[in-house]
Write a structure and sequence with these properties.
The protein is mostly helical. It has 5 helices and no strands.
Length: about 90
Amino acid sequence: MTIIFFAGQAAKSLVSEGFELRNQGNYRGAIEKFDQVIAQDDAQAKPFLYRAQTFIQMRAYDAALKDFRKVLQLDPHNARACMAKGLRKLS
């Protein structure tokens, strides 16, 4: 179970829809939902993290790395983004 912390109900709903689409293998649909959340508030790290994780599943590594960098810019101590960025450097 994923706990989602966003101010607006619309953002929470979009993130939930994005997770559901991603779990169904509809990565492009999930990206669209996360894009909508980011368009509403691009100062939150989590939507960028969720989108980056989806890009990884799509093997869109450059796009994922860009989002992981944004996560670290917004939340420098985000362990998931630090780990993903480090793994990318190894590959």
